[in-house]
């Protein structure tokens, strides 16, 4: 594609989409590294390099089902124009920045979904919604943390029985090594599911400009650019949220960190394969709570968890409202076609 032939508004919106992707990596860095940092297996500066590498190479292992869902399965691709994308990205970015400053691990994914819905509703109303796609995404709000919780809890039980007669120091050293594997798997799932959301946004934007003909697809240059932007964001880290995810919810041992990351990774792999844009934040939080509850119910700081759940509930409507306002105001800056 000849970049020089792109309209200035299109170039601007692609840049804004990549900014969102970068902020997604920045905001959600904690999802990939919180457990391995809190167990002191890796120092934070090395953990972000580790996570960023696996964020970047995720496209080698997964299809683009999530990008297809975001690009054409949340709102009708035919109603998308510059103003809709501008509104959606503005809503998601503003909400991400607010929650990042506050140290709240909210969902970048659902901020983007809320932004798309808010802008779509502002343009044409309920007819803009693809209900099956929005429905499965909304269901994942509840299912992804529940599945992460259940898998992590099950893994803790399996691991505990397997290593019941092994010396604690041997168990600790074994799982310090295994956490490198589980953190890698989780970072792959994170990079695959989250980066594809921005791929879908850029692809539907190109589609709306008539650059794909009648067939919606994701160009390879979009794939590479989005993976790189997310990896760069992860490199910059999100230390406030690392602290919340890694220590405020519950204290983790290397064994528990392995179980949380593995349970979360399995959940993300399944969701990415099915094309469901789940929240990596929801998933790892559910898994961390699961390993904490396996030790004892009081090991989980439920007050912190309730605050996180509240942020989950308000993310989509808050981002949607900001998006709707941005869509209305964008008439002063962008010309919708």
TrEMBL record:
GO terms for cellular component: membrane. Pfam families: PHO4 (PF01384). The chain crosses the membrane at residues 6-26, 46-64, 84-104, 111-132, 138-164, 220-242, 263-289, 309-334. Keywords: Membrane, Transmembrane, Transmembrane helix, Transport. GO terms for molecular function: phosphate transmembrane transporter activity. Signal peptide: none annotated. It comes from the Bacteria. One of its GO terms (biological process) is phosphate ion transmembrane transport. InterPro entries: Phos_transporter. It is found in: Membrane. The keyword Transport applies. It is a multi-pass membrane protein. PANTHER family: PHOSPHATE TRANSPORTER. This is Inorganic phosphate transporter, PiT family. It comes from Bosea lupini.
């Amino acid at each position: 594609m000849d970049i020089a032939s792109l309209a200035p508004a299109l170039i601007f919106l692609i840049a804004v989409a990549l900014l969102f992707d970068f902020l997604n990596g920045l905001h959600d860095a904690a999802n990939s590294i919180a457990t391995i940092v809190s167990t002191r297996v890796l120092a934070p500066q090395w953990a972000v390099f580790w996570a960023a590498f696996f964020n970047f190479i995720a496209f080698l292992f997964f299809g683009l089902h999530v990008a297809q869902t975001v690009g054409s399965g949340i709102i009708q691709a035919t109603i998308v124009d510059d103003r809709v994308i501008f509104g959606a990205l503005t809503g998601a970015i503003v909400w991400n920045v607010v929650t990042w400053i506050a140290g709240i691990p909210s969902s970048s994914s659902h901020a983007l979904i809320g932004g798309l819905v808010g802008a779509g509703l502002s343009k044409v109303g309920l007819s803009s919604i693809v209900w099956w796609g929005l429905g499965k995404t909304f269901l994942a709000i509840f299912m992804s943390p529940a599945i992460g919780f259940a898998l992590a809890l099950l893994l803790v039980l399996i691991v505990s029985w397997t290593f019941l007669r092994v010396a604690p120091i041997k168990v600790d050293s074994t799982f310090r090594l295994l956490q490198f594997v589980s953190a890698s798997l989780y970072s792959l799932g994170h990079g695959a599911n989250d980066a594809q959301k921005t791929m879908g946004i850029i692809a539907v934007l190109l589609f709306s400009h008539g650059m794909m003909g009648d067939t919606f697809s994701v160009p390879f240059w979009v794939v590479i650019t989005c993976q790189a932007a997310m990896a760069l964001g992860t490199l910059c880290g999100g230390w406030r949220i690392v602290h919340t995810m890694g220590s405020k919810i519950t204290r983790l041992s290397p064994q528990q960190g392995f179980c949380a990351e593995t349970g979360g990774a399995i959940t993300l792999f399944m969701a990415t394969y099915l094309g469901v844009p789940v929240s990596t934040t929801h998933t790892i939080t559910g898994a961390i709570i699961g390993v904490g509850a396996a030790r004892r119910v009081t090991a989980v700081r439920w007050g912190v968890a309730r605050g996180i759940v509240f942020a989950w509930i308000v993310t989509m409507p808050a981002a949607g409202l900001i998006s709707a306002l941005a869509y209305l105001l964008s008439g002063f800056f962008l010309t919708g076609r």
